[in-house]
Amino acid sequence: xxxxxxxxxxxxxxxxxxxxxxxxxxxxxxxxxxxxxxxxxxxxxxxxxxxxxxxxxxxxxxxxxxxxxxxxxxxxxxxxxxxxxxxxxxxxxxxxxxxxxxxxxxxxxxxxxxxxxxxxxxxxxxxxxxxxxxxxxxxxxxxxxxxxxxxxxxxxxxxxxxxxxxxxxxxxxxxxxxxxxxxxxxxxxxxxxxxxxxxxxxxxxxxxxxxxxxxxxxxxxxxxxxxxxxxxxxxxxxxxxxxxxxxxxxxxxxxxxxxxxxxxxxxxxxxxxxxxxxxxxxxxxxxxxxxxxxxxxxxxxxxxxxxxxxxxxxxxxxxxxxxxxxxxxxxxxxxxxxxxxxxxxxxxxxxxxxxxxxxxxxxxxxxxxxxxxxxxxxxxxxxxxxxxxxxxxxxxxxxxxxxxxxxxxxxxxxxxxxxxxxxxxxxxxxxxxxxxxxxxxxxxxxxxxxxxxxxxxxxxxxxxxxxxxxxxxxxxxxxxxxxxxxxxxxxxxxxxxxxxxxxxxxxxxxxxxxxxxxxxxxxxxxxxxxxxxxxxxxxxxxxxxxxxxxxxxxxxxxxxxxxxxxxxxxxxxxxxxxxxxxxxxxxxxxxxxxxxxxxxxxxxxxxxxxxxxxxxxxxxxxxxxxxxxxxxxxxxxxxxxxxxxxxxxxxxxxxxxxxxxxxxxxxxxxxxxxxxxxxxxxxxxxxxxxxxxxxxxxxxxxxxx
Length: 705
Ligand code: ADP
Ligand code: MG
What we know:
Elements: H1 25-33, H2 39-43, E1 49-51, E2 68-80, E3 86-92, E4 98-103, H3 108-113, E5 119-124, E6 127-129, E7 132-136, E8 139-142, E9 156-158, H4 167-179, H5 184-187, H6 192-198, H7 203-211, H8 219-224, H9 228-253, H10 264-272, H11 279-292, E10 299-304, H12 310-323, E11 327-331, H13 335-349, E12 356-359, H14 365-377, E13 382-385, E14 399-404, H15 412-421, E15 435-440, H16 446-452, E16 457-461, E17 472-477, H17 481-493, E18 497-501, H18 509-526, E19 532-535, H19 541-552, E20 558-561, E21 574-579, H20 587-594, E22 605-610, H21 616-627, H22 631-642, H23 650-653, H24 670-683, H25 685-695, H26 701-704
Parallel strand pairs: 4-7, 10-15, 10-16, 11-13, 11-14, 12-13, 14-15, 17-22, 18-20, 18-21, 19-20, 21-22
Antiparallel strand pairs: 1-9, 2-3, 2-5, 3-4, 5-8, 6-7
Helix pairs in contact: 7-9, 9-24, 9-25, 10-12, 11-12, 21-22, 24-25
């Protein structure tokens, strides 16, 4: 795959890693396995922790949970084998307190070192044990009886482990790499004026501070990741990612795309729909229509809450391609969802004479051959499917619009793989590529959208179709489960349907499937006379679909399910949802699940069952769910509640993982980054390219793919 922009990730004047002492071919290979291929990668392999060995804490002053260095004399040694080998060493100091060092793995040589009376200096995190505080597996040293042992002068960095390389050698390597840091001017890429404005240290200073913090460094800030040195690194990294996405976008837009101007078919579809488009749907479709009329590829993300009606907007867009004699493809992350799209699209489009084809993993043999022929000949005007659409052997006649639903479930690679189908799989410089429309029901806060989607235009369908009644949400402790059985009975007696969602903290499919099976049996017994269905991830695709379809067609009253129903499934007659262990789910997932009800006219209810006691965080999440149904509000709250450290990973945003930056902790930097990025793109594209190469480099394959 061509990487159109980025210059060399390794500056030409950088020696290979094997030039460092102690780094042979073998070690270099292990480093490379972790993406460390240059000196620069080592500079950017930042500590994940620090240990403060600059002082000694009296044993009596230790605080449980707070790491510290202590020094004392061995008072007693006990070697035991009760359940497994164990070594316990009690040490005491002038503070008259005793600390137990406990080892589960040790050699006899180690045991011999701990003679009663020996001086030991150790470091670790004390926790309450059977006999006062203890440290399990401290790092320690037995000191010479009389020598005056110096204390550390700096905080000790602890690096993320690299398989096959011990922590001490890794530290040595990084130290050696840091000795080769260029001087301040040679290393710096951020304009001086900008650094002054933002009070940021130079890159050299920032790296040295982070790797070798002087003793007076604010350790709390360092550990929280908010030290100016870290902010400096974060801002450059965020900037690099932003620039990479923007440059990617420019590269994309250098391609040509088919001009799709004919709108009569879309008008006919609109007129034939059983409902009127909402204002938001009309506005977003209008944006898409304008994009498609241009000869450069559209790259548009449509964000819209569950049930906001994204599918029909996609169908309208597809009509623009079809009327121009070209094809559109719609890809969904699950077979169930793709099937639902298929049936919606067939219902809407076949009366207009548009041929809709179906391609999923389970389409095999003759049927598959036939579909592939239709896709290749152009007879199939709209193709709906799953990942199967991107497989080898699938060749389109003339793909003009690639639509990806629930895009957060796909990586950026997959989205681009579908696009590449339109250009015969390889993209030359002046290739004609399809327009891309991606849809998501996972709203992400504005600040994050800037970082995640800098390569896309974003539209929001921020209005629900009329006639929806808000879902009444309550949180109940699991003890009240019996009442719910009655509630289900009465809802179903009125001809409505209900979901019972089983979740567990253990997300192994098997365990969850088992729980769902058990719940299914219990509820079937308790709700005699009602028709109960079951869907879980361990069922065969055909069984799953049969159960789902039976529910959709009203042949079952209650559907016991795991979170496989999470995405996109639409059963307007379902008006009651019960979610077990709701306290264990994140806000985004709860919101997605709840979106399955409240799709029809009947007033809907959602019951969040929880296992008391609730943590403060879980309580806040459930409270948020009770208070609002607005996906954007929930997303903001989610961001706030997650707090630092809990990265929004690739899964949620499609973003690559960062080395230093944390989208949540550093969210306040994003508008700045955006602004600086735009300025640099304009005034110093050369510099922008170097910043991208430094931070994103080869790892940007995802962003640059
Ligand atoms: P989502 O945005 O979650 O993908 P869907 O496209 O599945 O939502 O739409 C949810 C339901 O709303 C579908 O049954 C769809 O036919 C219906 N719908 C879409 N637009 C409208 C509208 N303007 N008025 C009434 N119903 C609509
Ligand atoms: Mg949808």
